[in-house]
Fold this protein.
Amino acid sequence: MKVSSKYILREGEKMTKSRLEAFTDGVVAIVLTVLVLNIQIPDAPSLASLLSITNTLFAYIVSFIFVAVIWVNHHRMMQMTEKINYRVIWANIFWLFWLTLCPAVTSWVGRNPNHFWPEFSYVVVFTMWSFSYGILSKQLIKANSPTSHVATILKRDQRSKLSMLINLAVLAGVFIFPPIGIFGRFLVSGIWVVSYRKADEYYQKVSGQKNHGRS
């Protein structure tokens, strides 16, 4: 029996966002677990042994903070979303693909902090992750009404564009000074943390106006 594409689209929309969120949360949890498992604690019980893995710990902290910050923003974005479709689902999977590479490049750059290829790979993976997050945002805007919460807020949110500009600048900087790659990640994380409060305040304002209109 042949199923029309129109019916498939409806079924895609019926795949609730809560299921997509649950899948995403599971992947994020696994990635964070793998991140910490990649830290090889020295056998010798001494401060010198701990200091020997300083670079690895630093890379872990930077990556953990960025993953946590973006996950919080992803949660808020999905919280505002009223419906999803197959384009949103695949955009989310594309975003998760780059997320799953995070532990590998974090471990590599932690063991080789001053070398070009580890730093370059680290920046490329996180740059593509930011890029795919922007794609996900655009697909959510298209999937929802132009006047919906998620469309209204995401159209005003310029963090993805700003992050991409910084990522590209850091990528170029790696050719001159490789360690800038991991330090640049701190800057991008800071943008999402600082501006998140303003985005949250605007969300509460819009949400309040909508609820007031219904009363």
